[in-house]
TrEMBL record:
<feature type="domain" description="Cytochrome c assembly protein">
    <location>
        <begin position="66"/>
        <end position="268"/>
    </location>
</feature>
<keyword id="KW-1133">Transmembrane helix</keyword>
<keyword id="KW-0812">Transmembrane</keyword>
<feature type="transmembrane region" description="Helical">
    <location>
        <begin position="70"/>
        <end position="88"/>
    </location>
</feature>
<feature type="transmembrane region" description="Helical">
    <location>
        <begin position="133"/>
        <end position="159"/>
    </location>
</feature>
<keyword id="KW-0472">Membrane</keyword>
<feature type="transmembrane region" description="Helical">
    <location>
        <begin position="186"/>
        <end position="209"/>
    </location>
</feature>
<dbReference type="GO" id="GO:0020037">
    <property type="term" value="F:heme binding"/>
</dbReference>
<feature type="transmembrane region" description="Helical">
    <location>
        <begin position="39"/>
        <end position="58"/>
    </location>
</feature>
<dbReference type="GO" id="GO:0017004">
    <property type="term" value="P:cytochrome complex assembly"/>
</dbReference>
<feature type="transmembrane region" description="Helical">
    <location>
        <begin position="95"/>
        <end position="113"/>
    </location>
</feature>
<dbReference type="InterPro" id="IPR002541">
    <property type="entry name" value="Cyt_c_assembly"/>
</dbReference>
<feature type="transmembrane region" description="Helical">
    <location>
        <begin position="6"/>
        <end position="27"/>
    </location>
</feature>
<feature type="transmembrane region" description="Helical">
    <location>
        <begin position="221"/>
        <end position="241"/>
    </location>
</feature>
<protein>
    <submittedName>
        <fullName>Cytochrome c assembly protein</fullName>
    </submittedName>
</protein>
<dbReference type="Pfam" id="PF01578">
    <property type="entry name" value="Cytochrom_C_asm"/>
</dbReference>
<dbReference type="InterPro" id="IPR052372">
    <property type="entry name" value="YpjD/HemX"/>
</dbReference>
């Protein structure tokens, strides 16, 4: 066993197996292989849901407060997005499904480095506060949307480079058009930015309720504002049509790097948000 929890081990094994099926479909374009991978991933989603709600009812709180819980919920959202695109009959996003599966699996593996048995202590903050819970959940969903946008941006750069160098392959034949990929990257970035803004507003509302305005100057809050500004710059440049789609995709990936910085800040520099990870 990898962990001390048999359900979490099963989730990992089935997730890894579904990833292998998606990779096989990515190479050979086998419909039955893709269906098997999708079925395994659906079972992973159900197990994640059972794990999440079991922990929620057992601990009597929404489990998004520790590092393990946050990464687990983040991975669950990514699995949901992967399933949506895998089951979609309107577009062929096989390459996206594979890359998104890899991202979700890596996030889940990162959760292994944290103690799943750790539960937050209610002595320091009012964890039952619904406003605080919504703030965290919406923030995680915004990061998932930004992740999807970054994956689309990466696919755009990959497909564009392949077409420019005239390196034809089966992958390109099954890939969506550059215009569709670019628009998808833009739409998911808009959704992510909207969710992030909503999360910040919920956080401000919670600060007002707490009556401690020093929390507004926490490094995590400031880095989140920086993240919002970077994505706003991306949206402005996209709306102005002054930058090429290639440069916009690069800016999108650069903005996602700020998300990683935001994550590091919350772990090491934040005096307030550090409670989330302990």
């Amino acid at each position: 066993m990898i962990t001390n929890n048999w359900m979490f081990d099963i989730i990992l094994y089935l997730y890894a197996l579904s990833l292998l099926f998606f990779f096989s479909d990515f190479l050979r374009h086998d419909r039955h292989v893709k269906q098997t991978g999708t079925g395994l991933l659906a079972f992973v989603w159900l197990l994640k849901a059972a794990f999440f709600f079991t922990r929620m009812f057992a601990g009597d709180y929404v489990p998004v407060l520790t590092m393990f819980e946050t990464l687990f919920f983040f991975a669950w959202v990514l699995v949901t997005l992967t399933l949506v695109f895998s089951l979609s009959k309107l577009f062929s996003y096989d390459l996206l499904v594979f890359v998104l599966s890899c991202a979700g699996f890596m996030v889940l593996v990162l959760a292994l480095f944290n103690n799943e048995a750790t539960v937050p202590s209610g002595n320091r903050l009012p964890f039952s506060d619904k406003l605080l819970m919504f703030h965290i959940i919406v923030a995680i969903c915004s990061y998932a949307s930004f992740t999807l946008s970054a994956v689309f941006a990466g696919l755009y750069l990959f497909i564009h480079q392949r077409l420019k160098s005239k390196r034809w392959s089966v992958v390109l034949q099954r890939a969506p058009s550059l215009d569709r990929v670019e628009k998808s990257s833009f739409v998911t970035a808009v959704i992510g930015m909207s969710l992030l803004l909503l999360s910040l507003l919920l956080g401000i509302g919670w600060i007002i309720v707490m009556g401690d305005w020093t929390l507004a100057f926490d490094p995590k809050v400031l880095s989140s504002l920086l993240l919002l500004a970077v994505y706003a710059a991306y949206l402005v440049q996209r709306a102005s049509a002054k930058w090429s789609s290639w440069r916009l995709a690069q800016l999108n990936l650069g903005a996602y790097a700020v998300i990683i910085l935001n994550f590091v800040v919350s772990m090491s520099l934040s005096n307030f948000h550090s409670w989330v990870w302990r």
